[in-house]
């Protein structure tokens, strides 16, 4: 990265720029989402009229610092799993066209301190299976499908 | 996946097949590695003369069920971080040519129960940065570079 920022800030700024390029839709499928900067960017897109949908893991979303409650209160639809396994994906899709995926959860710890990778891919061959997986999960985690224990 | 196995077993068998296709080298860069089947496959490749190198996270590798100790005892070189952040990658590179990356740690829980993604990529454009990152980490975690506290 040729920019003069420290590595974590540089990665964050690239990710923010990419997200803020969304004009129509943003699918977010994240095990953990606690970065305030990324949370604000997602809320901004929502206010701009971009269709934002979020899928996340039930165990992490209740933790201190999670952005999920704020996104929900802002009116963004969020669905979460209720299974025994983790919803462990870490990807987002901008305008149905650009896939952002890798090891990175959207947390300040991960952005600033971890060794992580983020792939940005526009080939439909790679994007399509992730879009399909998002729609599958979105339906599977539909609250109408949730069982009451 | 058209195979008749349950999803987790099918994913595992595809991953095993891909790994066992290695003829020359296998770089493994994993936050968590506890799957006994994948551990046995990696040991088999090592015995066949494939050059195996492993990078992992120090906190996870001591946990019960981790394969890292077994790999080390089999003579496979393993390096780990000693930083404050996590070594959170989840990728492997077969013969310097095929990149396997995604959200999946090589654990039975993840393979059997989680929602995960694994990308298999052969385009050099994507493989090269991961190879470079592996070599960077490999040098950075060289025991000769470790500080004694």
UniProtKB/TrEMBL annotation, chains A, B:
<keyword id="KW-0378">Hydrolase</keyword>
<dbReference type="InterPro" id="IPR025202">
    <property type="entry name" value="PLD-like_dom"/>
</dbReference>
<protein>
    <recommendedName>
        <fullName>Mitochondrial cardiolipin hydrolase</fullName>
    </recommendedName>
</protein>
<dbReference type="GO" id="GO:0005739">
    <property type="term" value="C:mitochondrion"/>
</dbReference>
<dbReference type="GO" id="GO:0016042">
    <property type="term" value="P:lipid catabolic process"/>
</dbReference>
<dbReference type="Pfam" id="PF13091">
    <property type="entry name" value="PLDc_2"/>
</dbReference>
<keyword id="KW-0442">Lipid degradation</keyword>
<dbReference type="InterPro" id="IPR001736">
    <property type="entry name" value="PLipase_D/transphosphatidylase"/>
</dbReference>
<keyword id="KW-0469">Meiosis</keyword>
<dbReference type="InterPro" id="IPR051406">
    <property type="entry name" value="PLD_domain"/>
</dbReference>
<comment type="similarity">
    <text>Belongs to the phospholipase D family. MitoPLD/Zucchini subfamily.</text>
</comment>
<keyword id="KW-0443">Lipid metabolism</keyword>
<dbReference type="GO" id="GO:0016891">
    <property type="term" value="F:RNA endonuclease activity producing 5'-phosphomonoesters, hydrolytic mechanism"/>
</dbReference>
<feature type="domain" description="PLD phosphodiesterase">
    <location>
        <begin position="83"/>
        <end position="110"/>
    </location>
</feature>
<dbReference type="GO" id="GO:0034587">
    <property type="term" value="P:piRNA processing"/>
</dbReference>
<dbReference type="GO" id="GO:0051321">
    <property type="term" value="P:meiotic cell cycle"/>
</dbReference>
């Amino acid at each position: 990265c040729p920019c003069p920022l420290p590595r974590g800030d540089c990665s964050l700024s690239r990710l923010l720029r990419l997200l803020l390029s969304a004009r129509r839709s943003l699918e977010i499928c994240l095990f953990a989402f606690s970065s305030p900067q990324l949370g604000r960017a997602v809320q901004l897109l929502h206010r701009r009229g971009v269709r934002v949908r979020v899928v996340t893991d039930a165990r992490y979303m209740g933790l201190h610092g999670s952005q999920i409650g704020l996104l929900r209160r802002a009116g963004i639809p969020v669905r979460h799993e209720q299974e025994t396994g983790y919803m462990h994906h870490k990807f987002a899709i901008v305008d149905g066209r650009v896939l952002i995926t890798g090891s990175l959860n959207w947390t300040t710890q991960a952005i600033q301190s971890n060794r992580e990778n983020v792939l940005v891919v526009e080939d439909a061959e790679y994007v399509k299976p992730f879009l399909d997986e998002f729609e599958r999960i979105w339906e599977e985690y539909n609250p109408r499908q949730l069982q009451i224990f």
